[in-house]
Design brief:
single chain, 151 residues, alpha+beta, five-stranded antiparallel β-sheet, 7 strands, 33% helix, elongated
Length: 151
């Protein structure tokens, strides 16, 4: 198991304990304007890693059995958006979502992170691929992956 899979397994295991898991805050930074090619490369790298991590998390979630309060959406899903001047994807879990995008304007690119818990006066972006595992764990925690079943 990868370190991320172990983190998800520990999170899922918390539903059987009297411990409320902590939702880590992923490292973010104020969105920076960068060269278009660099922005596209960064987005593709983060998107690729997101797909890998979703597969790992879903493998753990599927072996954990039914999750409290779950329905048909007890797995993470990734949806790409196709827009003329933007690359974007959404990761969803139990009706909650985070959106990672890169917008291209006048030869520059800038990233943007949107979702519950990421409000800011200035646009924010992930600090890099290393911030992605915390983003996904935060989505799981905030969506109630470890909540106890109702009696």
């Amino acid at each position: 198991m990868t370190p991320f899979m172990l983190q998800v397994a520990e999170l899922v295991g918390a539903r059987d304990a009297d411990v409320e898991p902590v939702a880590p805050m992923p490292m973010t930074r104020i969105s920076q304007r960068i060269a278009t090619g660099t922005g596209a490369d960064r987005h593709v790298a983060i998107r690729s890693l997101a797909e890998q991590l979703l597969c790992e998390a879903n493998a753990v979630l599927s072996t954990a059995g039914p999750v409290a309060g779950g329905a048909g959406d007890d797995h993470l899903a990734l949806f790409d958006e196709t827009l003329p001047s933007e690359l974007a994807f959404n990761v969803t879990y139990r009706g909650r979502a985070v959106r990672v995008s890169t917008t291209f304007v006048d030869g520059t690119a800038y990233g943007r992170l949107v979702g519950d818990g990421f409000e800011s006066e200035l646009p924010q972006e992930l600090d890099g691929p290393d911030a992605l595992p915390d983003l996904l764990v935060r989505l799981l925690v905030e969506s109630g992956v470890s909540h106890h079943p109702a009696a």
